[in-house]
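User: Fold this; tokens only.

Assistant: Input:
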Amino acid sequence: MKKKSDKPWQVVVLDDPVNLMEYVSRVLTNIFGFSREKAEELMMAVHQKGRAVVWSGNREKAEMYVNQLHSAQLHATLDRAE
């Protein structure tokens, strides 16, 4: 069993009532380099489920991604993988 400190950090995008779905997809493509299809899939998960994990890995890079998402006016948070 992995210790909590061994688990990766996750970048989670949260749904909001302000940003258009097309804009969210474009931001995900620009920040993470996702294909249009992958960005739209993640955007739909955010829209339908209220949140989606869009990236996981080390804390420093996860914090950088969250800051970039915040700069693009998206709601995002950093969580530890379960």
